[in-house]
Write a structure and sequence with these properties.
Distance between the termini of chain B: 41 Å
CATH topology of the largest domain in chain B: Rossmann fold
Structural class of chain B: alpha/beta
Number of helices of chain B: 12
Oligomer: heterodimer
Structural class of chain A: mainly alpha
Strand content of chain B: 25-35%
Distance between the termini of chain A: 38 Å
CATH architecture of the largest domain in chain B: 3-Layer(aba) Sandwich
Number of domains of chain A: 1
CATH class of the largest domain in chain B: Alpha Beta
Helix content of chain A: over 70%
Largest sheet of chain A: none
Chain lengths: 266, 323
C-alpha cells in the first residue's frame, strides 16, 4: 500500500452508462445460479399446469375448434414461465440492507440501476422459455414458421416477461418491502386467466369475452399461437407486439418514475 | 468556495417536518485531517454525514467536498469520496472479491487497476483467504473491514465513516481504529468520522466537533478542548444534600467553578493536587459522607458536560438501553 507513485494511483472517473448497465446486469446474472431454488417454481408450475390442462381438456378441445391442443397450450405455458420473473426481491434486499445506498454514493448512472436488472431479467426469461420450447418439440408440437418462428416466439415471450417486470420493480422501489413485492404475483392472475387461456377468443362469451378483449395477453397468445400453427400472420404478430408495447409503456413509466423518486435525495 | 479545504460546510441545516435535526452547522476540514464528530445518539451526526455524501439534501446551507458543492455537483462529489455508513452495506451473496471488483468497475477503474486494488486492499484489511468466501460467512469485524475496503477501492480523497466501530467487539474496534490511522498516515486520506465513543475521538482524531441537538457546541483538538476546562478535575460522588456540599466546597480556598450533575460534583482546577486535600478535610468537617473522591485529567465527556450541561455517556447509555 505504501510507496505507490502518485501518478500510478488509480483515480475514480465516471464509467459511462453502458459500462454501468453491464456491471449491474452482470451482478444480477451472477446471482441467478445461487438462487436456483427461487426459479424452480417458474419452471415447474407451467409444466405442471400444461400437463393438467392438456390431460383433462385435450379430448374435448376439438369441440371449441382447437385441432392441436398441445400447440394451443404451449404459449400459455410460456406466459406462465416468464410472467413475474424479476430481480425485484433482490432489489428490495439491496434497499433494506443499505447496499442500494452504497450504489447511490458511487457515480453510477441512476438509470443503469434499473435497466441493468431488466437486461438480466430479459436474459433470464428467454432462458426460462427454452425448456418449455424444448418440451413442446419433444411432445411433437411443430412450428410451421420453422426456426425463425421459434426465435420470434422466444423474442415475444422474452419481451412480455421484460415489460411485466416493471410492475414488481415499481412496488419494490416504492415500498422497499419484500411482502409487497411478493404480492405483485396477484397482478399475474387476471392477466393469465381473463383471457383465451383455455379456449380460443372466438369461443369465449359474455363478460369473459369482454374482459379478454381488453387483456393484452389475449393478443400475445394469439401471436404466439399463430407462429406455431398458422404461419407468419402479420396482423396477429403486430397486435402481440402492440399489446406488449402498451403494457411496457405503462409498467416502465411506473417503474422509472418510482426509480426517480427513490434516487432523488429526500 | 475554498478549494484548499477538503470539506467545508456553511449554514448546513436539515429539517425533518417540524424537527430540526441539523441546525446551521459550519465547519472546515483541511486535507489530511482526521476530523471527528462526537455526540450522543440522535445528535445529528448521521444526518450531517448523509448530507455530505449526497444521500440527503440540505434544507438550507451548502457544503463543498474538494471544492464541489453537494447541492449541484453531486457526481463530482461522489468521485472524490469513499463512504462506509453506520450499517455495513454489503451484498451477503457475493464474495469479498466480487464485491470489491464490482465497486471498482462502478468507479471506472480498468480491469488491471481493479485487480491491483483488490490485491492491495486484501492486504490492508487482512482477511486473508476469506476474500473469496461469501460475505454471509464473515464475522461482524470482517464485514466492517470489507466495507471499509469497498469505500477505498477508488483511492478517495475524503473518506466518510459513520460510527465505524459501532457494534464491534473491543479487539475488532482497535483493529479498525488502527486501519483508519494507517490510511490517514500512509495515504494522506482526509477522514471524517462520527463516533459516540469518547476514547475513540480522543485517541483517533486530530480535531473534534462536539455535536448536541444538531449544533456544533465545541470544536478543537481534543487536547485544546480539555485544556479549556482545566488541567485537573476533582470529582466527588456523594449521597448527601447537594446544597450543603456545594456550600462546604465554596468555603475551600482556590476552588473555582463547581459543576453539579445529579449526585456528582466536578471541580476544575489548574492544580488539583493542592486542593484535593483541603476538599477532603472540609467535607469530613461538614460531616458529609463521600462515596468517591477522585482527581483525574478532564475527558471529552467533561467537555461535553461543560458545554451542554449533560454527560454524554448517560445519553449514550440511555439510548443503548432503549434499543
Amino acid at each position: 500500500m505504501t510507496g505507490e507513485p502518485v501518478g500510478n494511483i488509480p483515480r475514480a472517473r465516471p464509467a459511462g452508462f453502458w459500462h454501468d448497465l453491464l456491471t449491474i446486469a452482470g451482478r444480477a446474472l451472477r446471482a441467478i445460479p445461487r438462487e436456483a431454488d427461487n426459479l424452480a417454481p417458474a419452471l415447474i408450475f407451467p409444466v405442471f399446469f400444461f400437463a393438467i390442462v392438456v390431460g383433462s381438456l385435450e379430448g374435448i378441445a376439438s369441440f371449441a375448434g382447437v385441432d392441436n391442443f398441445r400447440a394451443f397450450q404451449i404459449p400459455v405455458a410460456i406466459i406462465f414461465a416468464v410472467t413475474g420473473v424479476s430481480r425485484a426481491t433482490a432489489l428490495v434486499t439491496d434497499i433494506t440492507s443499505g447496499y442500494f445506498d452504497r450504489l447511490l454514493v458511487s457515480p453510477i448512472n441512476r438509470w443503469a440501476l434499473l435497466l441493468g436488472l431488466m437486461v438480466a431479467d430479459f436474459a433470464l426469461v428467454v432462458g426460462l422459455s427454452l425448456p418449455v420450447l424444448i418440451l413442446a418439440i419433444v411432445l411433437g408440437v411443430n412450428f410451421v414458421t420453422g426456426i425463425p418462428g421459434m426465435l420470434v416466439f422466444l423474442l415475444i415471450s422474452g419481451l412480455w416477461g421484460l415489460v411485466f417486470t416493471g410492475f414488481p420493480y415499481t412496488i419494490a422501489l416504492r415500498t422497499g418491502s419484500p411482502a409487497a413485492v411478493n404480492s405483485s404475483f396477484l397482478l399475474f392472475l387476471p392477466f393469465v386467466f381473463l383471457t383465451s387461456t383455455f379456449l380460443p377468443q372466438e369461443a369465449l362469451s359474455g363478460w369473459l369475452a369482454t374482459a379478454a378483449s381488453y387483456n393484452p395477453i389475449t393478443y400475445i397468445l394469439a401471436g404466439l399461437r399463430a407462429l406455431i400453427t398458422d404461419g407468419w400472420v402479420l396482423p396477429d404478430l403486430l397486435r402481440a407486439i402492440g399489446a406488449i408495447a402498451v403494457v411496457g409503456l405503462l409498467s416502465f413509466s411506473l417503474a422509472f418514475t418510482a426509480l426517480r423518486q427513490r434516487v432523488k435525495r429526500p | 468556495m475554498d478549494t484548499d479545504l477538503a470539506i467545508r460546510a456553511s449554514g448546513l441545516t436539515r429539517r425533518f417536518d417540524k424537527k430540526l435535526a441539523v441546525d446551521d452547522v459550519d465547519f472546515a476540514i483541511k486535507p489530511g485531517e482526521i476530523y471527528g464528530f462526537l455526540g450522543p445518539n440522535g445528535a445529528g451526526k448521521t444526518t450531517i454525514i448523509r448530507m455530505l455524501v449526497t444521500l440527503l439534501a440540505p434544507t438550507m446551507g451548502n457544503a463543498w467536498i474538494m471544492g464541489h458543492s453537494i447541492r449541484d455537483s453531486e457526481t463530482k462529489v461522489r468521485l472524490h469520496i469513499g463512504v462506509a455508513l453506520q450499517e455495513v452495506a454489503l451484498d451477503p451473496q457475493q464474495t469479498g472479491t466480487q464485491l470489491l471488483r464490482l465497486q471498482g468497475r462502478l468507479y471506472g477503474l480498468s480491469s488491471d487497476e481493479v485487480n491491483k486494488r483488490v490485491a492491495q486492499l486484501g492486504e490492508l484489511i487482512d482477511i486473508g483467504g476469506a476474500l473469496d468466501h461469501r460475505i454471509k460467512t464473515y464475522s461482524g469485524g470482517m464485514k466492517r473491514r470489507l466495507d471499509l475496503a469497498a469505500a477505498l477501492i477508488h483511492n478517495p480523497d475524503v473518506l466518510f465513516l459513520d460510527e465505524p466501530t459501532a457494534g464491534l467487539d473491543p479487539v475488532s474496534r482497535i483493529r479498525v481504529q488502527k486501519e483508519i490511522r494507517r490510511l490517514n498516515k500512509e495515504l494522506g486520506v482526509t477522514i471524517f468520522l462520527t463516533t459516540q465513543y469518547l476514547e475513540e475521538a480522543d485517541k483517533l482524531v486530530s480535531r473534534v466537533g462536539i455535536i448536541s441537538e444538531g449544533r456544533i457546541v465545541a470544536e478543537g483538538t481534543p487536547r485544546e478542548l480539555k485544556r479549556k476546562i482545566g488541567e485537573n478535575l476533582v470529582i466527588i460522588q456523594t449521597q448527601g444534600d447537594m446544597q450543603n456540599v456545594v456550600a462546604a466546597l465554596q468555603a475551600v480556598p482556590k476552588v473555582g467553578k463547581i459543576e453539579v450533575l445529579g449526585q456528582e460534583i466536578a471541580i476544575a482546577s489548574s492544580d488539583g493536587s493542592t486542593i484535593i486535600g483541603p476538599i477532603a478535610a472540609k467535607l469530613h468537617e461538614a460531616k458529609i459522607q463521600v462515596e468517591q473522591l477522585t482527581l483525574r485529567a478532564p475527558s471529552l465527556d467533561d467537555v461535553f458536560l461543560e458545554v451542554t450541561g449533560n454527560r454524554m455517556q448517560k445519553h449514550t447509555t440511555r439510548a443503548e438501553e432503549s434499543q
